[in-house]
Every structure is written in structure tokens, then in C-alpha cells.
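Case study.
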Amino acid sequence: MAKRLGVEVSIAVAEAAKQCNVDVISAYPITPQTHIVEHLSELVADGELDAEFIPVESEHTAMSTCVGASAAGARTFTATSSQGLALMVEILYIASALRLPVVMSMVNRALSGPISIWNDHCDLMLSRDTGWIQTVAENGQEAYDLIFHAYRVAEDHRVLLPVIVNLDGFTLSHVIEPIEYFDQAEVDSYLKPYVPAMRLDPKHPITMGPVGMPEVYTEARKAQEEAIKAARPVIAEAWQAFGDQFGRYYRAVESYQMDGAETVLITMGSIGETAMTAVDEMRSRGKKVGLLRIRLFRPFPVEELRKALKGVKRVGVIDRALPFGASGGPVAAEVRSALYHQTDRPFVYNYIAGLGGRDVTVENFEEMASELESLEKSELTEFYKIINVRE
Amino acid sequence: MAKETGAISWKELSLGTAILEPGSSSKLKTGDWRSMKPVTDRECCIKCGMCYIFCPDMVYSRDDEGYYVQNYYYCKGCGICAHECPKDCISMVEEGSNG
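After joint prediction, the assembly is written out as follows.
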């Protein structure tokens, strides 16, 4: 039987990577991701995990090492945050273009400047278009669970794409939660050994990552787009198998109190748990408020959102990143875009909240929900509103 | 529909656009965008082979008489051979001219 332990979430994520029996870990420490790779380096040093731990001088090299090791046929893992991700981004595009199933946990943190070590989704959005599959955890157990799912999806020969498992910095990474650790036999049953579809082998030389001339670049990008679209059913299938094995079922979009909901909030990440409390309170006062939490950010769950928002009157999307000069936050822009061609679509408004570690409270969610009802009737001059900004 | 400009269907590309045939780059004519080409004056050439040594693209090879001759199929016209020739026997001439 699986056992439940009080453990720091970062340690649980590292234990998940260990249980996935990774071959190569290459990482550079950066707050708030450090504890994950620190613990993995201890596990390797203590002989508890038979893997190569390759310490490097930068995140750019950490990801380059993962790309090289994965190309050679190894199961690879790394983790990063914020500025580290920024330094790594160049190679994220390479990993996905080469179709290498690297898995990375990204402990979400704000980008400079001003310098901030605290949590928001700036880094998540910086990696938005890199071609990686991206899942988002809301609590510690999910951060642990999603690592197993990530490898199963990434290494599936119908997919072969890298996966980022996002978890909020400090809010999740540094708290101690009751985590249910799986028995190794259960993990081995869920996640089979990695069988590369192709790899670097001197006996059978191939070239990975050649130049794509104008006559082939468009086709290469189209092939990659089709690959991430084709991952949708595999992602769902791997969650179904996970639920059947471990008892927790995950979906691309999680619904909460959606029965008869007229006003719906959409969150991504750990603030979804605060939002659930807010929705409970509003429901107890008779307000028809529901909540959707985006679990799968890439590929974006367009169909799931359209289905879940059918018949809903108004939607408030909460973004945790502010793209300067854009027509709203990144999640809201995609939700609006997903709904645009629907004949019967809800009114969509956008709130920017929780930047650089600013708390998002139950009261904030209640204010958003009640403001949404009045906004609908007024004339809109802005695409979005920043919550809690002091004038 | 405008004329098709892609070289191959996206469905036929190998995984990650990997090249599966070793040494296939020898089939690529990589010198077709050259604007200047090196021409050797055999009257003054001393067959030292400096052009062969310095050429970054293996354009030069030795013929039966011991001269080093260019394979323009791969020459990009960088001019390193002309610069390094100790007797100044190699001149860079405009592509398409009769030099």
C-alpha cells in the first residue's frame, strides 16, 4: 500500500523523479527550484538512485546536457525557475524540435525586474511557445503525481515531446504537505522503461538537428504542431490509466461547482484552491458561481473549455502574468480566442493577479465575481484589470 | 492555389527532421551561392598545398601532376586559399566571368 508522509513538496517531486528511475539529471540551482535538484544530487551521491547527476555552470547547459543525454537514449530530468528558465529557453525549442522526451519541473517564479524570487507565472508564459507539453499542479500531491504522467506521455511513441510540470514557487514548492508516495512496483507498472524511437548510436549514425532550408522549415513546424495536437488523446489516456492505478483522476480542465453556474472564474495553479473556497462561500449565499481550473496549458484545452462554458453568462479569467501592451493576459487571450467562433459565447473579462508573490485572497475572488455581474452592463474600455494595484 | 514551394510533405519528414542517411551531405551542392571563385595560375604555383591545408571545405585535391585543383561543387568563395597562398598564385574572380 502507498504510504502518506508529511514532506516538503520539492522533496516529493525529487522522489517522483527517483521513482521514475531517471538516468541523467542535469541542473543548476535557482530559487525556488533548488531543493528539488539538491535532493536528487543527494540521492545519487548516497547511492539510492543509480543515475548521472551532471552539475553545470548554467541553465543553458543544463538543458543542453538533457538534450544530449536524451538523444543518446537516456531518461532525463531537470528543474528550473524564472531567470534560469530565461537562460534555458533557447534549448527548450531544440528539445521539442528534436522530439526528445525530456521532463522538467518548473517551479514558477516571477521574472526580473524588479528582482523577485516570489511566485507568479511569468516563466510559464515565457516557455509558452516552446513546443513543450505543459501541465500545472495545484497542490503538492499533484506536483508529485504529474511527474509520472509526464514521462508516460513524453515517451509514448505517438507523442515524443518534452513535458514541463509546473508548480507554484514557495506556495507549493516550500510547504510541507501530506503526500502519498507510491510503491515502486506500482510505478513500474504505470511507467515502462524508456524505449527511444531513435537515438545517437555510432553503429547507426544519424544527424539530429540539421539546418531546415526555406523549402522544408514550414513542413518541419507543421509536423511539430501536428505532434503536439496528436498528444491530446495520449495525455487523457495516461491520466485515465493513472486514475485506474492510483485512484486520482485528472482532466485537462477541472470543474468545480459548475452545475447551473452563470458566472465562472478560470484559474491555473495553486490559487485554484483558494478560488474553490471563495466559490463555496458564494454558493452558500445563493450566487451561481463556478470555477474551472486549467490543468493542461499546452496543448491548450480548447474543446474542453468550450464544452465546460456552454450556457455560462460571464467568465473571469485570472492571469498571473502581465504581457505589456497586449490585449489582456495570456490565458484570457486564449480563452477569448477559443470562444470567439461560438455563436452562444459568454462575456469574458480578465484579471491580472498575484504578481511576484502578491497574495490572492478569497475576498479578491468574491470581488471579481460580483464585479463581473456589473461589468457586463457597462461599456468596456479595457481588456483587463490588475487586482490589488495601489493607485 | 499558388505553386507548391515545399520540398517534401510534412508527413514524410523523419522524426525531428533527423537525417537518417550518413554522409548524405556530400550530395548537397553547397557552393551554389558563391559570388567569387578562386583560380590558380599554374605558371607560378609551386605545388606547396597550402590552399589544400587551409581550405575549410575540402575543395582542393591533388591531381596526377601534383597540382591542387578546386572542386567548385563545394567552394563557397571565402578566399582563404587566395589569402594564404605564399606565391600569390590564386586570384579571386567574379563568378560567371571567364577568369
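Observations recorded in class. Helices of chain B lie at 50-54, 80-84. The mean pLDDT of chain B is 92. We will return to this complex in the next lecture.
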